[in-house]
Amino acid sequence: MSYVNRKKLGAGDWLNYTVLGFISLVSLFPFLYIVSLSLTDPTTYTPLKFYLIPDKWSLASYRYILSTDSFLHALKSTAFVTVVGTVLNLLFTFTMAYGLTKKWVLGRNFFLGTVLVTLFFNAGIIPHYLLVKEMGLLNSYWSLIWPSLTSAWNIIVVKSFLESIHPELEDAARIDGCSDLGVFLRIVIPLSLPAIAAFTLFFAVQHWNTYFNALIYISDSKKWTLQVLIKQLVMENDASGIGETSSGDEALVPKETIRMASIILAMLPILVVYPFLQKYFAKGVMLGSVKG
């Protein structure tokens, strides 16, 4: 006979749950409003009306925005920066962190000190811009990738995680004839899959939400990322910045519903991925915090 010990909720617990539930519902209202407005049929749309549930459902705004050249260009730009940037971030972060775990590496203390210094000192926006300009990366996708290949915080966290791997495993692999590269690829990488999964999500979300760097480094509207394009749509008085539709469709779609649909489309990939990979984010927060 099974027995479940259930704690009796007191008045304080019910008060906390009630307050938190109310805050959660209030926080959902803006999101529900955006979704509802984006799904409102253009023929029934009324300006300045609060839409919690559309009077008539329609995907006209989504069809319109997915047929525009500007949105498709922004989607391709963001996808390229996200995929390539994430792969390079993982490559540079894990290789450098692995090298810093080896005390016999020549110049290890110098490079480790250089990494630590960047935690406390930042050159600022203007030096970064001048550096990107001198490298000839302005108005290029690489301006969003090369300057942020890795960071001191990521290297230190990954280094702490790699140091928790028992060195006896690497010694055994070397005895069997593995080179340093072979040890890294065949021993370290397979044992680091939880960390790789977590940082893949960190880097992918960071690149997908790229806004400020794209705003100051990219001047060609055809190379804008999704976040920059959405900023133009939301902040301008009209939605003309989205450009002509690739299909030549001249259908009249309310500008407000176009803005809301673009916001939902930009958030959708992250919203789809998060529920399935949330556990890796939780593990990623603890990476390197405890050494075994």
TrEMBL record:
Keywords annotated in UniProt: Cell membrane, Membrane, Transmembrane, Transmembrane helix, Transport
UniProt subcellular location: Cell membrane
Domain named ABC transmembrane type-1: residues: 75-277
Domain of life: Bacteria
BP-aspect Gene Ontology terms: transmembrane transport
Membrane-related topology note: Multi-pass membrane protein
Database matches in Gene3D superfamilies: MetI-like
Pfam families, sorted: BPD_transp_1
Entry-linked InterPro entries: MetI-like, MetI-like_sf
Ranges that cross the membrane: 14-35, 79-98, 110-132, 144-162, 183-205, 258-277
Gene Ontology annotations for the cellular component aspect, listed alphabetically: plasma membrane
PANTHER family in alphabetical order: ABC TRANSPORTER PERMEASE PROTEIN MG189-RELATED-RELATED (PTHR43744), POLYGALACTURONAN_RHAMNOGALACTURONAN TRANSPORT SYSTEM PERMEASE PROTEIN YTCP (PTHR43744:SF9)
Family designation: Belongs to the binding-protein-dependent transport system permease family.
Name recorded for this polypeptide: Carbohydrate ABC transporter permease
